[in-house]
Amino acid sequence: MNILTTGSENKRLESLTRRDFLVGAGSVAFLVALGGNALTAAGTPEALPATDGKFLRLSQTLTGKADLNPVTAGRIDAAFAKLQPELHAQFAALALLAGTYTEPATLVEAAGDAKPAALAIIAAWYTGTVGKGIEAVTVAYRDALMQRPADDGLSPPTYAMGGPAWWVAPAPAPLRGQA
């Protein structure tokens, strides 16, 4: 009997295949090669942009939703700063107006020249994307406000009705009275 292992540990070690060992060793080597940055590069909360709360409060006022995700707010704010700095520069003025105008429609109307920035923030929260065309960046899927109407009936929120290739199945029979 091995002094370092117990009987149950011997059984686990004997069931370890070469393939399992190589996959594990390869994964460890990959993580070491990345210099320990693999987890933050993959988008864990540590890698997410921090927000000071002003953008979140502005977003809550513009959307009329008090339960917005602060992490998503940080992602949207950072994406605007990178992709559309001209709009991002107007956020501070909008945040000041949000202290006076607490309804979404009145804030948008009071925005004046910053109205495109206000509408872009609303669009980002509803679609989960910042920007347009090939430069657009997806910052949220599940937390996009457009998903909320279907959230209670579809999980994850999507309009796909089944698994892979669900559309090849025969169509369901019409309901009685419908043709």
Short description:
The protein contains 9 helices and 2 strands.
Annotate the secondary structure layout.
Elements: H1 7-14, H2 18-33, H3 38-41, H4 54-63, H5 70-83, H6 85-88, H7 91-98, H8 104-110, H9 115-127, E1 129-130, E2 137-138
Antiparallel strand pairs: 1-2
- What percent of residues adopt helix (DSSP H or I)? 40-55%
Q: Total strand count, please?
A: 2
**Which descriptor suits the 3D outline?**
flat
What's the average pLDDT? 79
SSE sequence, one letter per element? HHHHHHHHHEE
Description:
This protein is mostly helical and 179 residues long. The chain has two domains: 22-48, no CATH class; 52-150, no CATH class. The chain has helices spanning 7-14, 18-33, 38-41, 54-63, 70-83, 85-88, 91-98, 104-110, 115-127; strands at 129-130, 137-138. A two-stranded antiparallel sheet has the order 1-2. Strand 1 (129-130) and strand 2 form a beta hairpin. The longest helix is centred in the first third of the chain and has 16 residues, at 18-33.
Key descriptive features of the protein:
about 180 residues, mainly alpha, two-stranded antiparallel sheet, about 45% helix, flat
